[in-house]
Amino acid sequence: xxxxxxxxxxxxxxxxxxxxxxxxxxxxxxxxxxxxxxxxxxxxxxxxxxxxxxxxxxxxxxxxxxxxxxxxxxxxxxxxxxxxxxxxxxxxxxxxxxxxxxxxxxxxxxxxxxxxxxxxxxxxxxxxxxxxxxxxxxxxxxxxxxxxxxxxxxxxxxxxxxxxxxxxxxxxxxxxxxxxxxxxxx
Length: 186
Ligand code: PAN
Ligand code: ZN
Fold this sequence. Notes:
Shape: globular
Bound molecules: 5-phospho-D-arabinohydroxamic acid, zinc ion
Strand order of the largest sheet: 3-4-5-13-8-11
Oligomer: single chain
Helix content: under 10%
Number of strands: 15
CATH class: Mainly Beta
Mean pLDDT: 96
């Protein structure tokens, strides 16, 4: 047995990674200026509040290599809008990604370069094949942390600037009912 290498691990129930060197990044409310539609509700939030944490295995980043990471998106709202990730296109537009729902529930907002948006339901066991040329954002519509595993090419990179004007859909809590709203300038 001792001849086998012990690979890194993911705990399926909550997405905790172990067994390898990790990179961790917390995204706080203060870093999400302009992301939520209700600016005054955003400015009243605790700027230090962590909206999501990303953990990934520190691995070689050359062309052809893959990153494996987990996003833990906490439950909450800014105004009536659910907590969400900033969202991005890949800098290398043709590069896709796969997300796997592990814990909690929410939505994956996908948007083409032409601005066409669609939503996939995220739940433990869901598999989301994000094609190239498609922006992506996680939205936590539940009461508990939404954790999703992701695998993406190291060469993909992130382009946040192209969506600085926002996505074409917003997801809000309408008295306990999840509602989607189309945005004109999205
Ligand atoms: C994910 C995201 C992660 C955080 O690992 O980077 O969910 O979202 P933002 O990067 O939009 O803040 C991924 O899609 N990587 O490519
Ligand atoms: Zn991505």
